Amino acid sequence: MHTVYLALGTNLGNRKAIMREAINNIGKKVGTVMRQSSFYETEPWGFESPNLFLNACICVSTKLAPRQLLEVTQAIERDMGRIEKTVGLQYVDRIIDIDILLYDDLHINEPDLVIPHPLMEEREFVMKPLLEIKE
Prior knowledge:
Elements: E1 2-10, H1 15-29, E2 31-36, E3 40-42, E4 53-62, H2 66-79, E5 86-87, E6 90-91, E7 97-103, E8 108-110, E9 113-115, H3 124-133
Antiparallel strand pairs: 1-4, 1-7, 2-4, 3-4, 5-6, 8-9
Helix pairs in contact: 1-2
């Protein structure tokens, strides 16, 4: 079993219900959710929007390999209505965003999969909930 930390965010719709649905889907398709941070309301990062984000981090125990984890989390995003990550290299409002922050002590640097997440330490909306649950 592997220990992974995921960051979740949403700024559209019923944000609390969307977060609960995403965490529930992760529990069904990724593995056992061991810990969950509080929800944090934050300003958009990297783009302008009138919609505030709800952010959280979770710790999951999984059998999935890193590439499988990426595929499953992206499928969950699509199933929940996420169409694209960016528009013209610009961040946009999103129904759900699931980012892989940490996977055991692995370091991966591939074009579409970088672990640890390269921008996590620049983002308080990631670090605050992560530090709340990190062992």
